[in-house]
Design a protein that fits this description.
- The protein is an alpha+beta fold and about 240 residues long.
- It folds into two domains: about 5-90, no CATH class; about 115-240, Lysozyme (Orthogonal Bundle), CATH 1.10.530.
- The radius of gyration is 20 Å and the shape is globular.
- It has eight helices and seven strands, in the order H-E-E-E-E-E-E-E-H-H-H-H-H-H-H.
- Helix 3 crosses helix 8 (about 220-240).
- The strands form two sheets. It has a four-stranded antiparallel sheet, with no helix packed on it. Strands 6-5-7 form a three-stranded antiparallel sheet, with no helix packed on it.
- It starts with a helix and ends in a 5-residue tail after the last helix.
- About 30% of the residues are buried.
Length: about 240
Amino acid sequence: MTFNRRITRTLVTLLLAASPLLWVGSAQADSLRKIVHPDGRIEYTNVGGPGKGDKVLGGSRGQKIYKYRAPSGVLSFTDQKPKNQAYEIVKIQCYACNPVSSVNWRNTPLNLTAYAQLVRKAAAEHQVDPALVRALIHAESAFNPAAISHMGAQGLMQLMPATAASLGVENAFDAEQNIDGGVKHLAGLLNTFKGNARLAVAAYNAGAGAVRKYGGVPPYAETQVYVERVAILRQRYKERVNLSP
């Protein structure tokens, strides 16, 4: 996992008996390694190479990472939501992109109310099925407006900064701006692929260029499961509630 450069070269001590933590970046210097000391203390560090007894941690996409400062002043990171203290969500990966996700997408709980008016408004303005919009938000961020992917995509519909700027989105963490920008982007992809929602959704995940290159859904495991899960969610949202404007 890549940290702010102010702490990239520091030792991060987590004051908890941690469950498997943190998505690990590909760069060795940016990976967190677990160190269990003889006195039972657990430390995580991204400094240097693995040492004897160190365990390089993995993580799953869709995992939230919370950053907080412990009473002792130590900056800490955990996958458990801190209680009774201020925290920030540092990373949350694409919720529906993990090829080996254990989520049952046919019965996982739906969110029928969050941002309902904003979804209806944007869907009507850009002439996109509101059930598809809701499915995309569910798949991208699980309705977390503060979500940030490891690639830097932001907010409910996970807009990359350059994409957000091109859509006129000034603050991707503002729910109204993010939804309007994301739906506008989706509408453009639907237009590009002549109303084919499957290809538009694939392009939303992998890029329109990849869809054109392969003449369909790209052969990326992440994109293929993402497309299938969005389709499942879309149908379920259609069946559960009248999402028409």
